[in-house]
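assembly run, all chains below
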Amino acid sequence: MSHSVEKHLAVAPAAYDVEIRRFVPGYEEMLREVEGALAEHLDPGGRTHVVDLGAGTGALSAALAARFPTMRLTLVDLDAAMLARAASRLAGVRDRVTLHEGSFADPLPSCDAAVASLALHHVHDRDDKQLAYANVRAALAPGGILVTADAFVPACEAFKVPLMRGWAAHLVSGGDTEAQAYARFAEWAHEDRYYGIDEELGMLRGAGFREVDVRWRRGSNAVLVARRSTA
Ligand SMILES: C[S@@+](CC[C@H](N)C(=O)[O-])C[C@H]1O[C@@H](n2cnc3c(N)ncnc32)[C@H](O)[C@@H]1O
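ok done. output:
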């Protein structure tokens, strides 16, 4: 299995960090919310281990490494070119970082938390998504959490249309015409699949997570948390 962000988004890994901010409203704020969730659930001075699923160029891992100086991180991604960017970005903390070229659907290393930013929408099929969540849960220590930041769009047109209109407005503010914005959505939809928050919470519960919550939401983006129970 392999994956190329360059082919999917038509963005070279070197340009990714600029372009993702143009594509996704509130990207920075969303990453800060993931950080905040970890700060609440992990021992800030502990030698915790966090797995970054679909880590890409490592923006989230770099923020976590800076905020939690004793945290160890494993970055999992299918795209070697994206991981190469992450390697240079994380050069200063390389002793705490493992880079793994592979799928988050494969068995993951044991961890205290797993994070995902704009990554799990790559899993199209509902059953596969639930299996991916179960795979993460199996890697988590009891009391460990999954924090996933992504776009979540319900199928129902009444709710979907205004959310997509808001997302399109962000692309237009970055230079697209409205037609170009909707053409991007159509292009991305070949690979990306967004479910509504209630569907995602259902898949998380179906994967065995009994404690789930919506930590933050703004328009089409949200941060969901799921905790592996201790009992
Ligand atoms: C839109 S990028 C997000 C990157 C980064 N997390 C961020 O927030 O900027 C999605 C990433 O998920 C990776 N990806 C897609 N499917 C994957 C899979 N099954 N296993 C691991 N990585 C995957 C892609 O290669 C890509 O780097």
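Residues 3, 5, 20, 54-56, 59-60, 76-79, 82, 103-105, 117-119, 122 surround S-adenosylmethionine (CB under 6 Å).

Residues 5-227 form a domain with the Rossmann fold fold (CATH 3.40.50.150).

not gonna interpret more than that til we talk
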